[in-house]
Amino acid sequence: MIPLIAARAALSAVPWRAIGAALLAAAIFSAGWVANGWRKDAEIERMKTVSAQADLAGAHKAMEDLGKASAAIRTKADEFNASQATLAAKVDQAVKEFRNAKKPLPVDCRPDDFRVRKLSDAVDAAKQAAAAR
């Protein structure tokens, strides 16, 4: 029985109220810590969502700009092809007329008005082709 009395005396000497208060404080602190963690996790997720939405908006804008640029490139390519076709026809016609000239030009002679006009037309066509690029 003496050991039981000694155990009761030892247990009565322990400050149970202080231990209980410390455990209660630790439990409240832990609950606050967990709640703050949940709050911060929610804030981080919100920031990730905002960032992802901004990235998505940027990607949509880039795709829109790419579509506009490709349409502009296609339009310019079509214009270039059309101008090349007309200029090629003009150049071919000028070459054909020079090759099929009725009176060939003597060596030390100046070209007549018809040939000068055709040469000027060929130069103008070449300038148009250069300006189109």
Structural overview:
Keywords: Membrane, Transmembrane, Transmembrane helix. There is one protein chain. Helix 2 packs antiparallel against helix 3 (113-132). The model has no long low-confidence stretch (mean pLDDT 85). The protein starts with a helix and ends with a helix. The protein is built from three helices and no strands. The chain has two domains: 18-88; 101-132. With 133 residues, it is mostly helical. It has helices spanning 2-13, 16-99, 113-132.
Summarize the structure.
The chain has 133 residues and is an all-alpha fold. The chain has helices at residues 2-13, 16-99, 113-132.
Largest sheet: none
Tell me, briefly, the overall form. rod-shaped
- Total strands: 0
As a percent range, the share of strand residues is under 5%
Ends apart, CA distance between termini: 113 Å
Q: Rg to the nearest angstrom?
A: 47 Å
Q: Flag low-confidence runs.
A: none
| Fraction of residues in H or I helices | over 70%
Give the tally of structural domains: 2
H/E element sequence = HHH
Instruction: Supply the number of helical segments.
Output: 3
Structural category: mainly alpha
User: What's the average pLDDT?
Assistant: 85
Please specify the SSE layout and strand pairing:
Layout: H1 2-13, H2 16-99, H3 113-132
